[in-house]
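Discussion board: Methods & Data

I've been asked by a reviewer to show the raw model output for two of the constructs in my manuscript, not just the figures. I'm not sure how much to include, so I'm pasting the format here to get opinions. Each protein appears as its amino acid sequence followed by a line of discrete structure tokens. Is this the kind of thing reviewers expect to see in a supplement, or should I convert it first? Here is construct A:
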Amino acid sequence: MDEQNLLAHCHEVGAYLGSALARLAERRRPKTRSARGRGLLQGLVMEGDAAAVVVRARERGLLLSVAGGNVVRFAPPLVVGQAELDEALSILDAVLSEV
């Protein structure tokens, strides 16, 4: 972990993910309420049940989970890059336009 400087990477990429989710939450209102989290453990708070979003995202190859019933949870690997996050956010945006 030290050799790859994963802690700094997680802070940097986690901040990127958090900002991107906050923008997505704002753009997809009223379906979404807000974004929350720390580091790479982030969530998108939905206005209602998050299960349908998680199922549709999984059908497109994006693995997410539900937290607390109304939160779409992101928990990517520590080595995730911004390009992969951009792809995941694009999939999630498309799913939100459908539900």
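Construct B, same format:
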Amino acid sequence: MKILFLHGLASSGAYKTANTLRILLRPCDVIAPDIPIDPHAALSLLQELCRQEVPDLVVGLSLGGFWAQQLRGTRKILINPDFHVAGLMRSHIGTNSYLSPRRDGAETFEITPQICAGYAELEQHQFEGITPAEIALTRGMFADHDTVVNEWDTFDLHYPGRGVHYPGEHLPTFPEIKHHLLPLVGK
């Protein structure tokens, strides 16, 4: 099985969830790119990566869930997805630090009003083209104690009955991934 892992804001493909997936789903091939902060560059990169790699499953965490849900025709699991990224980003305009190492060595990134506007534009169209087949390809996993984002209602509106809750916080731990994500991978 080939899995594409999409990290959240201020993170990278080296984020611990990617390594957790590699351990728990061995011998699966887990691809975990560093996603650009620019929204149009990010979506273009991820669509091209899906065309080239043809993953069996996409797992997106937080902002990665925002990206994953837009990769139509691909089986996906969204973990605590943030469907309203622009609002969060507006509170972080300026220079920000990455929380995990990037392949290019970058330690900081810039959030500008233009980047926020780009995310707002994508948000307006992110749920277009959802068919019954797309709903069947999509699962969601939501933490009961997420203080960063809570998009359960939005997810359930567009993907009714496709989400599950887990007793955790925004960033799932190794045991939470093992006990709550792995059953979704097998479905």
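Answer (T.O., handling editor elsewhere):
This is acceptable in a supplement if you add a one-line summary per construct. For B, something like: The chain has a mean pLDDT of 95.
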